[in-house]
Amino acid sequence: MMRGAFLLSASRSGSTMLSQILRMHPEVLSLSELLTMQASRALLPGHISGAAFWRQLSRPTPLLRQLANPSVAPEEFLYHRVARRRFDPDNCPPLLAVTLPHLFDDPDPVFDQLAPMICAAPRQRRADHYRHLFHCLAQDSNASLWIERSGGSLLAAPTLNALFPEAKKVLLLRDGRDTALSMQNYKPARFVIWMWKQARRAGVDVLSADAHLGRSRRIWLAELLGARLLPMRRIMAQPPSLQDCAAFWSAITLAGLRGLAQTPPEQLHVLRYEDIIEQPRPRLAGLADFLQISQDAAWLDAASPIPQPRAPRHRALPEQDREALDLWTAEARQAVARFPALAAAPAER
To answer: Which site in 120, 121, 186, 289 is 20 to 30 Å from 276, CA atoms measured?
Structure first.
């Protein structure tokens, strides 16, 4: 069995950058947006056959067709950049949207090779199907570690701890004020925040520890039956208020920290986006030590220039807006500062 890890974040926290950096390491199988592209069926309980799991990986849901395409998320959606692609980017298999193009320049043949291997797997939990998929993807490489990164995966922290107890967890944190500002302009985040608000009004918590998005059959059924009825153009065209973005960041961060609170210290590594930007080489070297991969000199030389220094966006806001954003995110920022793994770390800027 390969060693494994999850890169957890609240979204818009620099996880895409870190996933790209890890992809460059010769010992790492870097899996980007694998769980995200499975949407509300990503971690459903129960056992399914290999053929059913392959259908999940290869057939987009109606909602995914509207969210996982180059017009909505052009930076993260990678398949439209493939030179010799076989599928329509607006209706491509979930596994091809981001995960395979992140790993391979020509992902379609890999997709074809995976089909019989995944279909041949026995009836088992989705977690075991994912382990089998990781093994298949790493067969022709020197990778000894897989690490999965999905935006917003912090909400699934307790589920991932339960389903993958052997996998290490890397928690990537970014100042919630800047994260909220970034969410406001990111179209997939607009939809998730809209859905979170509507679900709360209906008494459904899509961030709950045992029935969150990706784990709840109720949410999966709602997606299956109602996705075609959603006013997607209106939702995507209207940015949520900054207060709603701050509230969502706070909610997912508080839920995620609660889910990670009992994680053994040797299984959890915390990184701050701001620290990676300021000191990339030592932070990446520390991450390599935690993941038990080599501090490969060529990797560190190539990866260290990628994080670029930038001024915090929230500091450029008008004073009244800045003070309001400070207030809206205060509780969650304080919880981050008190989190056991950060108790001895420098205070948030």
So the answer is: 186
How far is the C-alpha of 115 from the C-alpha of 93, rounded, in Å?
Answer: 12
Q: Residue 196 and residue 213: Cα distance in Å, rounded?
A: 10
Indicate the helix (H) or strand (E) that contains 281: helix 280-291
What SS3 class is residue 4?
strand
CA distance 164 to 159: 8
Q: What is the DSSP string of 6-36?
A: EEE-SSSSSHHHHHHHHHTSTTEEEEESTTG
Q: Determine how many CB atoms are found less than 10 A away from the CB of residue 326.
A: 15
| Cα–Cα distance, 243 to 344 (Å, whole number) | 30
Measure the CA–CA gap between 54 and 133, rounded to whole angstroms. 10
User: What single-letter amino acid sits at 322?
Assistant: R
Q: Choose among 121, 118, 117, 60: nearest CA to 91.
A: 60
Exposure b/e, 139-164, CB count within 10 A at least 16 = b: eeeebbbbbbbbbbbbbbbbbbbebb
The total number of residues written for the chain in this structure: 349
- Residue closest to 236 by CA, chosen among 81, 68, 121, 118: 68
Q: Tell whether pTM > 0.85.
A: yes
Q: Contact, 337 vs 254, CB < 8 A?
A: no
Instruction: Decide: 163 and 127 in contact? Cβ < 8 Å.
Output: yes
Report the chain's mean pLDDT, rounded to a whole number: 93
Q: What is the pLDDT of residues 244-302, one digit of tens each?
A: 999 999 999 999 999 999 899 999 999 999 999 999 999 999 999 999 999 999 999 99
H or E segment to which residue 62 belongs: helix 62-67
HSE-CB for 159 with a 13 A CA cutoff = 24
Q: Are 153 and 6 in contact (CB under 8 A)?
A: yes
* Alpha-carbon torsion, ordered 101, 103, 104, 107, to 10 deg: -50
Query: Which residue from 20, 18, 21, 214 is spatially nearest to 130, judged by alpha carbons?
Result: 214
Report how far residue 339's alpha carbon sits from residue 20's, in angstroms, rounded to the nearest whole number. 27
| Domains of the chain with CATH codes | 3-342 (3.40.50)
The pLDDT confidence band at residue 224, using thresholds 50, 70 and 90, is: confident
Token pair in block for residue 273: 């986006």
Alpha carbon distance 3, 146 (integer Å): 6
